[in-house]
Structure formats: structure tokens, C-alpha cells
Amino acid sequence: MEIVRDQEISEPVSPSGQFLSNSVLSVSIIAVMELEEPFDDSPSIIPFLKDALLPINPHIMVLKLQMEMVSEPVSPSGQFLSNSVLSVSIIAVMELEEPFDDSLSIIPFLKDVLLPLPRFSSIMVADKDGVKRWKRVEVRLSDHVNFPVFTAGMSAQFYDGCFDEYLSNMATEQFPQSQPLWEVHVLNYPTNHAASNIIFKLHHSLGDGFSLMGALFSFFKRADNPSLPLSFPSVQLHTRKYGKNFSMFRKVPTFFSCVYSSASDFCSGIITSCLDKEAETPIRSGHSEVESLPVAITTITFSLDHIKQIKAKLGVTLNDVITGTIFLGTRMYMETVSQGSGSACSTSLVLFNTRMLKGYNSVQEMLKPDSKAPWGNHVAYLKIPIPKLGDAEATNNPIKFVMNARKIIKRKRSSIGVYLTAKYLLLVARFRGPNGASRCIRGTLENTSMAISNVSGPVEQVAFANNPVNGLYFVVTGAPQSLGAGVTSYIGKLRVALLAEKDFIDPPKLKSQIEKAFEMISEAACREST
């Protein structure tokens, strides 16, 4: 009788392996390597094959190749932000110092920076169970890069109008679902703000502001010294001021306060998404499908040093100052348009990144499986009541707008209400599908008056394709609200971009009131410090 050793017993072929290799179906993979030089030493490939391939368990090798063919599932938040109920995008504008004459030079940048990101070369498809997945497709860059043509030889004021109209139309247009969800627009015409502009429109399902802006920053080099890395403003993480002897008697009420705040914020968020609808005001039209109506985009520029002076005098954060300024200016605008509306019940959603980070990571770092700053959507929103003019006595003490905003945001950030809301959305999606969760988010947006989000830009001036960038700003489009604000810091300036419903909100008047509010807060801070 012949004795068969254990190691000589062949491993059974897996069921999937059998399904893919028989007389009915036989599937293979062809991989091509294009070498820079002739491969003259052909026999040298034998040792590589022997050392690299033969030790590999055939079963493991097949499994690995098969898994690479399976498309990556779209994250829950990605599905919530891209469907027939809600579709949200980000528009980022780069203002260049010089004309961007070599327009085709943008192609290599896109090919090297964006296309390696799987989501920028994928489309959303639904599997047999209705679950959306990212499917890799061949990307034709000509389908994503646009070079609009306007009348040549006109004034900067004329091109300002062309730019504003183009940006407004872009904000309300939907992406074609047959190609990856991003676009680049090169407007090589001088405006009063820039010699030329490059606009990126990126769907929010690709990632949050942190991820997408991190990808865009990968295009940049420092204008003063391209060999040095970009630097960003330092972020001060909040720490407790109490020592090790922090009394248990103070911990107990703090704990119960946190529990109460968390429960209150969670319940308030659910009620807002379903029932608590705000009244129509000068910043909330209440129009059906307002996200599809024409919009106007305008920007306001503040000195970052000036804001830091106010911040130091009041002992608050930079975000507290700018949020209080926007709140006060918005209330003053409401009052000028409709007397008494400055004291109406209005709320704002303030978006923030849930990653505990001090700066941006490279795209390669974000894509690592164990990254501390993973690519994706990691954002939450706080529902902040906008202080009323009567409550804050704006004309006498505008600082109260800053302090009230600080107090509410600090309390809400210390609660776990936003995380409970995220779990609730996942639960809704489980039983009612992604569209059900999207209806909850849409309800919250529709039933509030505005939203504010912010990102930090580089400290030093950067260049894109050796062309210095003079300005950066962004807005979020697709939200069913009449007003939104995007805040960006860059080279000593803080830019507030306002996206407003056209023919309902008066952007120049709103801009003027926010600028006036900033001066009022600055003067009040000087008086307070003296």
C-alpha cells in the first residue's frame, strides 16, 4: 500500500475558484508592465518568478486578485449625500496672480494627484441588494476639465459679471451620474480679484472638506521656496484647566450636565428634522426645492491679524469671533429688510470636523488603512440658535454675540448629541434605506436658516503650476437653504464666502452689514480691554 504524506495532499479548490475555472466559465487577469528600457536579460525573470510567485499559496493569490475586482462600498455618509433626496457638492475657487495661459498643463496635475484617488476614478453603482458601491471606470480628463469662452478684450468689470453668472450656474447644475463626480473649470479672463481663476467642483460623497481640501492642497507648492512643505495654522486643542485634585463634587454636576445637554441636543435635532420648522424671514424664503433656484456668491475679506487682536482681547477663539460677526451682521441685515425680524427665532448649523487633528495630512497618509486621519466624510453639525438683536443689545454691546456664540458652541461640543445623531441616522438607514436618512438630514437643513463651515488654508502663499495663488475660498452647494457661509484662512486673510438665494437675499447689503458688525465688535473689544 502506498503511503501519502500530509504535505503531498493537494489543497481543495474553493467553490468560487471552481465557478471561475470550468468548461462553462474561465476568467483570467492580464497585467501589463511598460518598461523604460529594453529587457535584454530575459532569463533573469526566472529567479523572480521562482522566488516571488511559487512560494505563494495559489488559493491566497486568487483570493487577493478576486477581492481587487470587487468595488468598494460607498460609506453611509456618502450615500446620505448623493441620492434623489439630497445631493451636496463643494465649490473651491483659486484666484491666480497671473493669466493661466498654459491651460493644458493642468492635465498632468489632475492625472498625478486626483486620479490615483479611487473615488476620483469611480462612479456609484447599486448592486443586486441595492447597496451603492464605487466602480472603477476609465476616466477621460477632457470630460472633467472645462475652458469656458467669453468675449475677448473686455474690461475686468465685464468679466466679473461673466464669472459670477458662470459660478451661479455651476452651483445649481447636477453631475452626470455616468462619470466620476468632479469637475475643473479654468477661466482665463482677468477680473477685479484675479488675473485668472480655477474652480474645482467636487461632490461631497467623495469626502468631507478636510479630505477634499487636503487633495487640492496637494497641487500646491510654496511660492517662496517650492522645496519646503506647506504649513498651516496651529490648532489649539481644548484642555481642562483643573489639576489632579479636580473635586468629585465638581465632576458629578459636570457629568449630569453633559448627560442632560447630550439628551437635549439629540432630541432637539430629531424634532428639527421632522417638526420644528422655522418661520420665513429675510434669510429663509421657505421656497420648495430652494437648492435648485439661482444663487449669488459674494466674498468678504478680513485681516487675520485684526481678528487675532479681538480674539486676544476677549479671550475667545478665532472661530468665536468670526461666527459672532456673521451672526450679528445677519441679524442686522434681517432688521433692515424687515423690522422686527432681527429678533425672530432663527438657527444656524455650524459644521465641524470630528477628527482630533492639528493639521492636514497628505493624500497618501489619509489613504492608509491605519491612518489617524482617514479619507472620507467625518463631519458633524451643531444646531446653534442665532442670538436675537434684543437679547444681545447689539448696538450697546455687540460682544455679546461673540460670547453667546462661544457659550453655546462650547456647551454643544462637549455633549455627545452629535454622535448620538450619527448613530440615529445609521439606524434610520438600516430600516428605511439611505434615502430615509437623507430625508432626516434634509429636514434639518430645510428647518434651519443657514449653515456655516470652515477650513484652514496655508500660512504662506502657494503656487499652482508656478502661478502664485492670491486667494482661496469655497462654498457648499445643494443644501436646501437660502443662505450658507464658507470660511477660509489663507496668507494672513480670512475669506467669508456667502452663497445666497438670488432675487431673495441682497448679497451686497448682507456683506455690508457683516462688515459693519465686524467693526462694531472690534471697537467694543477695544473699549472692553481699556
Structural commentary:
- The chain has 530 residues and is of the alpha+beta class.
- The protein folds into 2 domains: 154 residues, 2-Layer Sandwich (Chloramphenicol Acetyltransferase); 259 residues, Chloramphenicol Acetyltransferase, CATH 3.30.559.30.
- Helices cover 38% and strands 19% of the residues.
- The protein has 15 helices and 16 strands.
- The strands form 3 sheets. It has a 7-stranded mixed beta sheet with strand order 5-6-7-2-14-13-8, with helices on both faces. A 6-stranded mixed beta sheet has the order 9-16-15-12-10-11, with helices on both faces.
- A hairpin with a 2-residue loop joins strand 15 and strand 16.
- Helix 8 runs parallel beside helix 14 and helix 9 crosses helix 10.
- The N terminus is likely disordered.
Descriptive keywords:
530 residues; Chloramphenicol Acetyltransferase; six-stranded mixed β-sheet; globular; seven-stranded mixed β-sheet
Q: Report strand %.
A: 15-25%
Percent range of helical residues: 25-40%
The CATH homologous superfamily of the largest domain is termed Nonribosomal peptide synthetase, condensation domain
CATH class of the largest domain: Alpha Beta
- The strands making up the biggest β-sheet line up spatially as 5-6-7-2-14-13-8
* Radius of gyration from CA coordinates: 27 Å
